[in-house]
């Protein structure tokens, strides 16, 4: 089943074309990296998938798990209900700093419980147990009672992932979840996302600045440039040389300094979906 299907999606901010006729299918259970230099449209695309932004009026469609969340620039009637099934992790501002970590994770229940219960913070013993299990799943059970503002960046991202586990979403969108983390915290967060994708069969779309993480953790990479898809295929086949050709000097943002530019591989026949779409 197709988890996310995007057709002819475009978005302008003033004169700036942020998305340019994007069409993309992501199957259920995939782990896909979105890469691109700064300003290429990664965040904008993620925000359209969860209905936080709307495409051009009269054009474009985004389906999630077989139902439209936005169509022709308008949110559908089901969008609100559908958002419950889409977990989102951002680079920052993931948690309510003054609340305990456990309370933040419990907020993942809000879409499924009566609003009065959420407002009063009245969660059942079963919901609290599930939240503690989720914190254990992401490797930070010991911080449950700490204020969220006291966590390190990596711990905050792990708590945000735990909240999406409590939410029981089928789709997890992570918008630059490791951009402000040190390399070892970044690896840990990516390992957790990969484990959640593998073990819970949650479809993951992760926007990343550095292609090394895409190659290591995401079988498929979609690369954006100026709001257009310029590569869609196996992460392992997106060479540094291709990045240099696609992004010119901006490719430096995407390639870790220690990774040498690889020699260009001879062209080989690939499935149609995997043909790099240079634009
Ligand atoms: N709310 C907004 N108002 C005006 N312009 C915007 C807005 N959101 C995004 N843009 C512009 O749209 C383009 C795409 O931005 P977007 O944030 O999607 O890129 P990105 O690839 O996620 O970049 P980064 O890696 O720096 O986060 C950029 O030129 C950006 O300045």
Describe the structure.
The protein is α/β, with parallel strands linked by helices and 279 residues long. 31% of the residues lie in helices and 24% in strands. The protein has helices at residues 42-49, 79-83, 101-106, 115-120, 125-137, 153-167, 183-200, 211-217, 240-247; strands at 2-13, 16-27, 31-35, 61-64, 67-71, 74-75, 86-89, 171-175, 203-208, 220-225, 228-234. The strands form two sheets. The chain has a six-stranded mixed sheet, with helices on both faces. A five-stranded antiparallel sheet has the order 2-1-4-5-6. Helix 6 runs parallel beside helix 7. The longest helix is centred in the C-terminal third of the chain and has 18 residues, at 183-200. Residues 263-279 have low confidence and may be disordered. The structure holds adenosine-5'-triphosphate. Adenosine-5'-triphosphate (ATP) binds at residues 13, 16, 18, 36, 38-44.
Q: What characteristics describe this protein?
A:
globular, 31% helix, disordered C terminus, alpha/beta, six-stranded mixed beta sheet, 9 helices, binds adenosine-5'-triphosphate, single chain, 279 residues, five-stranded antiparallel beta sheet
Low-confidence stretches: 263-279
Oligomer: single chain
* Helix and strand sequence: EEEHEEEHEHHHHEHEHEEH
Largest sheet: 6 strands, mixed
Mean pLDDT across all amino acids? 87
**Tell me, what's the shape?**
globular
Beta fraction of the residues? 15-25%
Tell me roughly what share of residues is in helical segments: 25-40%
Number of helices: 9
Strand order of the largest sheet: 7-8-9-3-10-11
Radius of gyration: 19 Å
What class would the helix/strand composition place it in?
A: alpha/beta
Bound molecules: adenosine-5'-triphosphate
How many runs of DSSP E, i.e. beta strands? 11
Distance between the termini: 28 Å
């Amino acid at each position: 089943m197709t988890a996310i299907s995007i057709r002819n999606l475009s978005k302008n901010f003033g004169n700036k074309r942020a998305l340019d006729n994007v069409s993309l299918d992501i199957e259920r259970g995939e782990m896909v990296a979105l890469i691109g230099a700064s300003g290429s449209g990664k965040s904008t695309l993620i925000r359209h998938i969860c209905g936080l932004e709307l495409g051009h009026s009269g054009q474009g469609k985004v389906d999630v798990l077989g139902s439209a969340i936005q169509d022709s620039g308008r949110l559908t009637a089901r969008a609100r209900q559908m958002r419950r099934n889409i977990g989102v992790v951002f680079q920052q501002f993931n948690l309510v700093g003054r609340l305990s970590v456990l309370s933040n994770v419990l907020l993942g229940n809000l879409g499924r419980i009566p609003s009065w219960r959420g407002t009063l913070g009245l969660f059942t013993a079963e919901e609290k147990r599930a939240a503690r299990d989720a914190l254990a799943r992401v490797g930070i059970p010991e911080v449950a009672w700490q204020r969220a503002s006291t966590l390190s960046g990596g711990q905050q991202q792990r708590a945000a992932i735990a909240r999406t586990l409590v939410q029981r979403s089928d789709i997890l969108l992570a918008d630059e979840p490791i951009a402000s983390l040190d390399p070892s915290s970044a690896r840990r967060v990516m390992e957790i996302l990969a484990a959640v994708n593998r073990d819970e069969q949650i479809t993951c779309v992760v926007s990343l600045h550095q292609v090394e993480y895409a190659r290591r953790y995401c079988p498929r990479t979609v690369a954006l440039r100026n709001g257009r898809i310029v590569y869609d295929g196996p992460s392992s086949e997106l060479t540094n040389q291709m990045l240099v050709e696609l992004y010119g000097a901006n490719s430096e943002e995407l390639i870790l300094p220690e990774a040498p530019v690889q020699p260009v591989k001879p062209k080989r026949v690939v499935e149609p979906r995997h043909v790099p779409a240079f634009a």
